[in-house]
Amino acid sequence: MKILISWLGKTDIDNMQANELASIATLATKHAQPFDKVLILANAWEEHWQTYESWLNKRLAVLHRPATAEIKHQSLSSPTDYQAVAAIMQRNLQALCRADNQIYINLTSGTPAMTAVSVLLGKGIYQCNFLQSARDNTIEDVRIPFDFDATYAKAALSSISAKVVAGPKLSSAFDDMVSESAAMQAVKQKAQKLAMTELPALLLGETGTGKEVLATAIHAASNRSAKALKTVNCGALPENLVDSILFGHVKGAFTGANNDHAGLFEQADGGTLFLDEIGELTPAVQVKLLRALQQGEITRVGDSKTRQVDVRVIAATHRQLTAMVAEGTFREDLFYRIAVGVIELPPLRNRIADIPDFVKIFLEDINSVHSKQPGYESKIISNSAIKFIEEQLWPGNVRALWNALNRAVLWADNAELTVKDIKDAIVETSHSAEKPTVVPELVAGFDIQQYIDGIKENLVKAALDKTAGNKSKAAKLLGLANHQTLANWMKQLGIETEN
What one-character DSSP code corresponds to residue 340? Predict the structure, then answer.
């Protein structure tokens, strides 16, 4: 299939109104190889699109050419924004460049930025053909005079050598991250690598482990740092406003929609969108999110027009998404779309080496806040109190530690915080001392009944061993009504005894 792709130029519109050919029409109607499709990218002069499509398709039909011309809207704030133009061209070329397609790019229509990007992507990545037309409506097959791959490889090797000699240089975005522990050093290294890619990221971890802090650092260290980072807690989104908040709405879309509103995807265009607690999204919103990620397109509520967006998504959750996929509450295709750069943040109980630094930083912040109170005396903390903090499990992780230190400073009478001060500041100490529940890994195909039967079998065997095979005593140990119930269990589980 032969496909011509081109940006729409002002000259194309002007000549159409005079019923004369310009670049796109010249190539579509006169090229020696008739095209099967003509795709025209446009971001301006929308009032002329339908007329232009009809005009060009009539000309093609008269010439018995098979091509159908289609104008496709592209959301572009400026035709000279190289980053935005590149994102649009890459998205369209990626969708078109299959093994059975021959792609021809028109270099005449559009801005110099559009032409430059077309050459770079079409030659360097997608192996396209290039065409241009002259004022006299002649057509030229353009040959790019050098091999981008070889030129790039040579330049890259030179650049790498220079950087190796210069020594390592890490992004300052991660400098303030507490990471003395081996677990956080590993997280930091992964995050630094991930930051320099365009891959979507999924941050996993218990509540309070610092997922938002890590997402902010990844954005700050990325090539998108000059653009916006937008953050939303999916669990706090009102169900009736989710679509509007994420994708925007047009005036009159619903009661109270008095103006057009750009959603978070449009606000984050060119930058990063952090979707915290993504596991809380409803199935309906998951479908729209998947479309935005796959096609780079969103539709405002109440609108029929799709809009192109270039957004990197970083998602986070404390929930077991694999289990949600298995039970059908989270879309499998969405999971695999976001779970590319996956980083799991360790709980505070696995970061003991980081606790002294957290305590120091938090106390400095707390003292700074309270210093504005008349007569406040800054607090320090004893080594034994720090040791006590290191021995706790901290189910709420870093956030729970912060709150406990705030309470300790508030209630303590002395300048030095003691073990007792920390003990008194921990809410529900008895619960925090409990070991976290061990849950098996939940994946597709998990058999809960088989898992429960395994637990029952182990407990029945343990009770029988403890009572030397006496079923009546074993039944009592297990809290069963009678030994017949135990016998039924044993038969079901295939447990045999000598008695």
Answer: S
Cα end-to-end distance, the chain, whole Å: 78
- Asked if residue 456 lies in contact with residue 467, where contact means CB atoms within 8 angstroms, the answer is no
pLDDT, position 55: 94
Comparing 206 with 100, which gets the higher pLDDT?
206
Contact of 186 with 234, CB cutoff 8 Å = no
For 192-222, what is each residue's pLDDT tens digit? 999 999 899 999 999 999 999 999 999 999 9
Q: Is the pTM of this model over 0.85?
A: no
CA distance 313 to 194: 12
Q: Are 128 and 104 in contact (CB under 8 A)?
A: yes
Which residue is it, tokens 């169900």? 239
- CB contact set of 167 (below 8 Å; sequence gap of 6+): none
CA 451 from centroid of its chain's CA atoms: 33
Kindly list the distances between the CA atom of residue 480 and the CA atoms of 53, 239, 473, 485, in Å, as whole numbers in the listed order.
78, 45, 10, 7
- pLDDT value at residue 405: 93
Q: Is 72 exposed, middle or buried (0-12, 13-18, 19+ CB in 10 A)?
A: middle
Distance of alpha carbon 257 from alpha carbon 250, whole angstroms: 7
Quote the CA–CA distance of 282 and 239 in Å, as a whole number: 8
Q: Name 412's Cβ contacts closer than 8 Å, sequence gap at least 6.
A: 379, 418, 421
Question: What single-letter DSSP state applies at residue 35?
Answer: -
- Which pLDDT score, from 0 to 100, does residue 430 have? 42
Average pLDDT, the chain: 85
Q: How many CB atoms lie within 10 A of CB 281?
A: 23
Summarised one tens digit per residue, pLDDT across range 135-164 is: 888 898 888 776 665 665 555 445 434 433
Please give the single-letter amino acid code of residue 460: V
Rounded Cα gap, residues 99 and 267, in angstroms: 36
